[in-house]
Backbone:
């Protein structure tokens, strides 16, 4: 196999696929990146066996030649060294000459002779069924991930909680994540979709984080294909193949309270900043707790630590309170993350009781999103 | 003690002095920052007992009032939390009201009540003798540190090698560092100095790194006071008091070879880049070695690793060689760092033998600096 490739494009492709490579891969061969040349394409592949990424380099981009080939073939290069060698190459185009798994890399006066992996040992990527598909803008899908992923459980005994639940029913796509202390649920209406189409799957957090890096600040559409145990994201020339978490996601609708004893309308930003400040005093405690005392037109935020002292701050809010004084204690971190996800100038907090879950929503309901938090017992 | 202070100035001062605070201080009280108010000054102090930093805040800067005081006094605040509380304060000026070691911090609607440390327990800073002094521009002194500090030994059995040796003799200031595999020596002529003034001291690496952060990209002069066991740097309103490493620094002049069998004049940048690339192949080996083969008008740089393969690159150079072929093996990291420190378009390398030390100097000798490297035995 012999080819010459434009350095900048090659680095871009290597950076994308190398995200799939695990720090300590299960199999040695998965330390490698597979490079396939056939017809007018160069295809790069990498995988940690749960996430597999493929990047197709077109021969011409904007009429510029990205590569030229003397002969087709396949090689598997050691990712760790290879990417640095390419990054430091002194010329615009880099030449490769591979004879079975012995690879020569030339750039100007520099020449590397490195050992590749045995191509036949590299696992085949699955063939993607194109039967079930929907399309969503990269920007919108990135938001859905951001708005839910932080609520996934970390190191939970139930692996299903370590992913985001994605459900399609009646043309409504619902993303849900919960660590059993809090929950985030975001719904959007999909257009141009067969109303008969339904699915319910759990996508691993790590895979979504990897996808996020590609689609952040991008505008084009993502094609999403799904099968029983796999979801495939295709964005432009990049394909992500992801193994789903198997299991049945719990019914989370019953976790959202529908009674209300106190309702607060407040600036999301002002509440966030006040909680952020007051909780400085308790952030090193195991439970980083702030106490909210809701009066007729103010919220008092209070926190204390035995070692350090206490802090409090009062902010104005629009309050409908059935009682004279409503008090609740909550994790400052969770409260801040929920306000951040709501991302609305004004937020509505609905309390159902001092020891029961409460909800946070955007005041103008411009997005169908709800955050549910459980208060903390302080006595 | 009661005062109000401009947030931005206070943060600046806190950031400077907090650099002295050790991650795990020997004494609990050294987790604190001492704040003294008297006359028209606020003075901040912090120390890890080897490095002590003092920052004086003037009452007026450019006619703007930095602080106002209701009553004078001293407090010791817990640095870790205190700086974050100040950074997140919502108002331009922050108010303090301290009653013995109970401290109230107010900013807008937010109020913190924190415990300070016992002021009497805070160690006194030494009184600085102003007897012996010299002055040097911050920029030049920063360069001298940069050009030598990387050669100090890491975790050596001899603590004296973990500092930079600073010597004054005949109005020449010499900075030297060596880890016994390589050496950097930089000399400058001091003006306006009493030719009788001499000293020879070893300044701990960590202290110099801390000083560097303050004087980087600064142009004013530093006043340097020295005593038997201490050196004091005064830059504007910041004072660094540093305990010296005790002991006698070895005579390093005899380590600089004065015979020469091969002399190479080469672009510093081209050699650096070539070594950087070729050594990619060996960087994970214990000895990250490149082999230089010096011919009549080229240098061939070669490296190999059993696991990975090999790399080589040829570059042009102006060579005076007593032999047909001169070969030497050297640590790529040390060679790159030496070229970097020389910081000259063209460098002169003088070899004294294949197994003896060689030197690198700037070709125009515009700065009196020399790097000495020991080759590595490869058989």
Residues:
């Amino acid at each position: 196999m012999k080819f010459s490739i434009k350095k900048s494009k090659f680095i871009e492709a290597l950076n994308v696929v190398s995200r799939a490579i695990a720090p300590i891969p299960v199999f040695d061969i998965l330390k490698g990146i597979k490079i396939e040349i056939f017809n007018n394409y160069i295809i790069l592949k990498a995988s940690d066996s749960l996430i597999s990424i493929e990047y197709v380099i077109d021969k011409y981009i904007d009429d510029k030649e990205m590569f030229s080939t003397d002969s087709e073939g396949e090689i598997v290069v050691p990712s760790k060294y290879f990417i640095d060698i390419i990054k430091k190459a002194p010329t615009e185009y880099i030449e490769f000459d591979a004879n079975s798994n012995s690879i020569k890399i030339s750039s100007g006066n520099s020449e590397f002779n490195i050992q590749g992996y045995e191509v036949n040992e590299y696992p085949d990527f699955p063939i993607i069924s194109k039967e079930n598909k929907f399309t969503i803008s990269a920007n919108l899908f990135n938001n859905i991930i951001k708005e839910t992923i932080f609520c996934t459980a970390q190191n939970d005994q139930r692996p299903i909680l370590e992913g985001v639940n994605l459900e399609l029913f009646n043309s409504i796509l619902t993303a849900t994540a919960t660590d059993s202390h809090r929950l985030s649920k975001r719904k959007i209406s999909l257009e141009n979709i067969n109303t008969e189409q339904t699915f319910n799957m759990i996508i691993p957090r790590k895979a979504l984080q990897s996808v996020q890096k590609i689609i952040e600040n991008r505008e084009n559409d993502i094609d999403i294909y799904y099968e029983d145990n796999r979801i495939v994201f295709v964005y432009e020339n990049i394909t992500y193949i992801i193994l789903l978490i198997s299991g049945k996601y719990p019914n989370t609708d019953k976790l959202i309270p529908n009674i209300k004893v106190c309702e607060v309308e407040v600036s999301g930003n002002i509440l966030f900043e006040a909680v952020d400040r007051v909780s400085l005093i308790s952030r090193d405690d195991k439970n980083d707790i702030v106490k909210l005392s809701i009066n007729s037109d103010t919220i008092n935020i209070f926190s204390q630590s035995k070692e350090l002292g206490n802090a409090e701050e009062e902010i104005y809010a629009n309050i409908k309170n059935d009682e004279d004084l409503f008090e609740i204690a909550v994790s400052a971190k969770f409260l801040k993350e929920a306000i951040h996800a709501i991302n609305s100038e004004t937020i509505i907090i609905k309390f159902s009781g001092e020891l029961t879950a409460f909800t946070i929503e955007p005041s103008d309901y411009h997005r169908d999103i709800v955050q549910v938090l459980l208060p903390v017992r302080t006595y």
Summary: The mean pLDDT of chain A is 94. Residues 27 and 194 of chain A are 41 Å apart (CA to CA). The helical segments of chain A are 7-18, 79-87, 138-149, 205-215, 268-278, 332-342. Chain A is about 15% helix and 45% strand.
